[in-house]
Q: What sequence folds into this?
């Protein structure tokens, strides 16, 4: 099933469940309402804001579908921003920032196009509402006949409404439940919007296979991180070079108006902030959904996927999610039919590309397949000691590849490539390992997350041998053993010379992990001197143990050390270093030891 077909099919399920607007409507941010009496007189203009954290933002409301605006003036039906509806906007300076008065309030005014936008809104509704008999529609028509933009300041309407999207309501008008009923929600308005005839040329729709009116422009998609706030498109032909055979815009890839509305509305619902069906991975925004006629089953599966891709700090919740996925992955019985392993699941990765959206990846599959791959991903990253408190999230790996761990420094393509590997079991992208090794060489930080990435990459991509979860004293790989040896040499230096500002890790790790034959002879010679210093003091027992550790590791290496290590071997070196650095020493290995000692920690 193609992306558009799967999304169009999803719309029907969402609409039936009340999670998507009715046809020809869309969910938009509405920041204010104009309350009218039946004569069209303004009783009040009131902000319609909700609290989200510490911010006050516009509320989400289902309204007649937003028009697709480019450079021209094109009003929406029965709602729009204040420039169109009221002919007023916030005054702005040359930099485009709103001008405020002495009390910090925005000052109403007009921009170059404001008068033309307001006139277009009035003309549209003069025609649309000319034959209206509904009291709400009549009141709105009368309002537009008598309203003047100067009324806003003259009557002292709230400046918070400026530049917000605005809807209309008759004073005291509510539905059967007592909820305020807006003009565009009145039955007559819904019928008016639904009765509009399709205006596109007839052709065969590539999504439904039916002959229907073709959408010239597809509705905008909003909510993709980094894309234009006004929305972006998956399908668009905005330059002549993209067109062919004399066809223009959407005719080059014919999708019916109904299918275009369905797939974009479904995608916007998935991208909504509180949908629980999207996560951010690098520059990619990932959406996912289950294909089933059972709403409870779909919600259960989608909740589990969200919890797996975006783990919480709640240990109990993580354990529950892990247990459920493990059962599904193994084909074991679950608590109910909601966790059917054969349920179809779709995962789509989107990334911004100017006014368009790029498809980072598209992975259709079964819930059981994805459960197995997610479990495998978690197992790949297991390490002792564990660098994560709970299941690791894929996005957290990307920060280990970025300078200063800033999101803007993450490679644009790496997030999509990593998610493809996580969801399909494909090899991890090579830039994942090269970036981690590069960051270690640059900042000298060797933490558990970076070591886990190195282990995961080598085990999945190479597959010739397996780096275990914890220390493996019998592992014969030279790079792994050299990493262990470096950790022991560092520990010897720390014990012999406490209080050092910088150790051999800070000065020699990059060289030792890439050209060991050139560096290790010098480090071992220095370690011999450091052991002698320890024996002269109170560290004789520990010196003996560290010396024996160094000897045991040396015994598994050939006389001629590798002159250089490739990228994969540098990953093994990091894993060996981390294992040895944090390995616990048995109490009976040093005569008279009173407690367990971290071989690489400072006391």
A:
């Amino acid at each position: 099933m193609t992306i558009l077909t799967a999304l169009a099919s999803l719309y029907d399920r969402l609409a039936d469940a009340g999670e998507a607007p009715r046809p020809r409507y869309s969910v938009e941010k509405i920041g204010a309402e104009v309350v009218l009496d039946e004569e069209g007189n303004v009783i009040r203009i009131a902000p319609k804001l909700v609290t989200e954290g510490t911010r006050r933002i516009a509320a989400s409301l289902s309204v007649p579908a937003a028009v697709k605006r480019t450079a021209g003036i094109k009003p929406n039906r029965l709602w729009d921003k204040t420039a169109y509806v009221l002919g007023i906007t916030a005054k702005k300076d040359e930099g485009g920032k709103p001008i405020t008065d002495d009390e910090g309030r925005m000052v109403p005014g007009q921009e170059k196009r404001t008068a033309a936008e307001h006139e277009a809104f009035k003309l549209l509704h003069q025609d649309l509402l000319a034959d209206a008999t509904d009291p709400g529609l009549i009141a709105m028509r009368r309002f537009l006949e008598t309203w003047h933009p100067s009324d806003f300041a003259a009557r002292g309407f709230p400046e918070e409404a400026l530049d917000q999207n605005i809807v209309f309501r008759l004073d005291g008008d509510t539905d059967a439940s007592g909820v305020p009923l807006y003009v565009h929600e009145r039955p007559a308005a819904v019928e008016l919007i639904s009765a509009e005839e399709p205006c596109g040329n007839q052709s065969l729709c590539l999504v439904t296979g039916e002959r229907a009116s073709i959408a010239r422009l597809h509705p905008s998609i909003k909510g993709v991180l980094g894309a234009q706030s006004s929305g972006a498109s998956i399908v668009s032909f905005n330059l002549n070079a993209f067109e062919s055979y004399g066809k223009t815009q959407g005719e080059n890839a014919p999708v019916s108006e109904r299918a275009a509305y369905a797939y974009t509305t479904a995608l916007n619902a998935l991208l909504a902030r509180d949908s629980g069906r999207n996560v951010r991975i690098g520059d990619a925004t990932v959406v996912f959904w289950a294909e089933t006629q059972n709403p409870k089953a779909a919600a259960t599966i989608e909740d589990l996927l969200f919890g797996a891709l975006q783990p919480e700090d709640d240990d109990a919740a993580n354990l529950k999610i892990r247990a459920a996925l493990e059962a599904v992955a193994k084909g074991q019985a679950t608590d109910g039919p909601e966790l059917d392993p054969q349920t179809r699941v779709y995962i789509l990765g989107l990334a911004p590309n100017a006014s368009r959206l790029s498809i980072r990846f598209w992975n259709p599959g079964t819930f059981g397949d994805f459960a197995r791959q997610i479990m495998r991903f978690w197992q790949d990253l297991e390490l002792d000691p564990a660098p994560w408190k709970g299941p690791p999230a894929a996005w957290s790996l990307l920060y280990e590849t970025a300078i200063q761990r800033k999101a803007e420094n993450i490679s644009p393509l790496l997030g999509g490539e990593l998610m493809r590997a996580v969801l399909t079991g494909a090899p991890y992208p090579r830039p994942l390992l090269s970036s981690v090794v590069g960051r270690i060489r640059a900042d000298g930080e060797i933490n558990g997350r970076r070591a886990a990435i190195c282990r995961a990459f080598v085990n999945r991509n190479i597959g010739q041998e397996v780096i275990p979860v914890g220390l493996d004293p019998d592992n014969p790989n030279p790079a792994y053993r050299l990493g262990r040896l470096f950790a022991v040499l560092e520990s010897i230096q720390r014990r012999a010379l406490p209080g050092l500002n910088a150790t051999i890790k800070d000065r020699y790790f990059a060289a030792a992990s890439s050209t060991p034959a050139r560096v290790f002879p010098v480090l071992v010679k220095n370690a011999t001197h450091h052991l002698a210093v320890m024996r002269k003091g109170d560290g004789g027992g520990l010196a003996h143990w560290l010396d024996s550790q160094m000897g045991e590791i040396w015994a598994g290496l050939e006389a001629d050390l590798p002159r250089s290590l490739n990228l994969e071997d540098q990953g093994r070196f990091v894993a060996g270093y981390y294992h040895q650095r944090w390995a616990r020493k048995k109490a009976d290995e040093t005569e008279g030891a009173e407690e367990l000692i971290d071989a690489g920690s400072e006391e």
Remarks:
- The CA atoms of residues 200 and 556 lie 75 Å apart.
- The radius of gyration is 32 Å.
